Amino acid sequence: IRWAVAVLVFLALALAAGTLVPRGPVPLAPEAIDAPEIVGESPVPIRVATGIIHTDIAVPLDRVPVDWLDRFGADGLPVNHPGAKWLVFGWGSRAIYPTSPTFSDMRPAALFRAFTYDQTAMRVAVVADFQISDGVRQYEITRSRFSGLITAIDAGFEQGVEITLAQPGYG
């Protein structure tokens, strides 16, 4: 029984460490993005929404690559709607995004999968307004950093991340 308790304690510590310990530098640290690289270069606004269990990144729809407009438009997102202003990406658990549109819909089994062996899903939405608030900050980043952000998001698609389009909730 001592052995079983030791294994359970180890698993609990490993789960806590994997959940709470950051896995690298914060990519959107203000000191890394506030200074323009080229004098006179117009910055690109992005918005970052942080919640209890996830983060969304909103990029201006008029600044995304044309092939993204084709890709997401073909998948049914209203990228050409006259009121569309932001393309919003959220990464999270495949067990959570499609099955739990609100926090109250989350089930223990989905949370367990999310913290253990679940795969990543990407939520993509088009919105007209993504207002700045307590949970939403705007960053002005240089074009080269914006290009790097687009490349990083695109890499998620190349890795075969499941895409969930325009799910309600968590927005």
Which structural category do the helix and sheet elements fall into?
alpha+beta
Average predicted local confidence, pLDDT: 75
Largest sheet: 6 strands, mixed
Number of strands: 6
Give helix % range. 25-40%
Give unreliable regions as ranges: 22-36, 167-171
CA(first)-CA(last) distance: 46 Å
Q: Order of SSEs, N→C?
A: HHEEHEHEEHE
Strand line-up in the sheet with most strands? 5-1-2-3-4-6
Overall 3D shape: elongated
| Rg computed from alpha carbons, rounded to a whole number of angstroms | 18 Å
How much of the sequence is in beta strands? 15-25%
Query: How many distinct helices?
Result: 5
Topology, element by element:
Layout lengths: L1 H19 L9 H4 L10 E7 L4 E6 L5 H9 L11 E8 L14 H8 L4 E8 L8 E6 L1 H16 L3 E4 L6
Parallel strand pairs: 4-6
Antiparallel strand pairs: 1-2, 1-5, 2-3, 3-4
